[in-house]
Amino acid sequence: MSQQTEQKQIETAIFAGGCFWGVEYHMQRAAGVKSVESGFIGGTKINPTYQEVCQKNTGHSEAVRIIFDPSETNYETLAK
């Protein structure tokens, strides 16, 4: 007897929109979004602190990684 399991698809989007707090706040409430994680992207220093990034001397940008279900939303909708 074979058992079929439904495999759920997820996709990832990363947005860097200035301060990540506002982006994170809105994305957590968006339909189809399964998780939101703030962090840093780019830059030259390994594991910079928030203060170092805010001083703008590491080359990093604040960013938000969004995991979403493409059957409920899409990248274009999230980017609006």
Structural features:
80 residues, oxidoreductase, alpha+beta, 3 helices, 3 strands, elongated
Describe the structure.
- The chain has 80 residues and is an alpha+beta fold.
- Helices cover 22% and strands 30% of the residues.
- A 3-stranded antiparallel sheet has the order 1-3-2, covered by helices on one side.
- The longest helix is centred in the first third of the chain and has 8 residues.
- The protein is elongated, with a radius of gyration of 16 Å.
- The mean pLDDT is 90.
- GO terms for molecular function: peptide-methionine (S)-S-oxide reductase activity.
Shape: elongated
Structural class: alpha+beta
What's the helical proportion of residues?
10-25%
| Major sheet description | 3 strands, antiparallel
Strand content: 25-35%
Report the end-to-end length measured between terminal Cα atoms: 47 Å
- Average pLDDT value? 90
- Count of DSSP H/I helices: 3
Report the strand count: 3
Low-confidence stretches: none
The Rg value, from CA coordinates, equals 16 Å
Strand order of the largest sheet: 1-3-2
What order do the SSEs take from the amino end to the carboxyl end, as H and E? EHEHEH
Protein name: peptide-methionine (S)-S-oxide reductase
Family: Belongs to the MsrA Met sulfoxide reductase family.
GO molecular function: peptide-methionine (S)-S-oxide reductase activity
Organism: Streblomastix strix
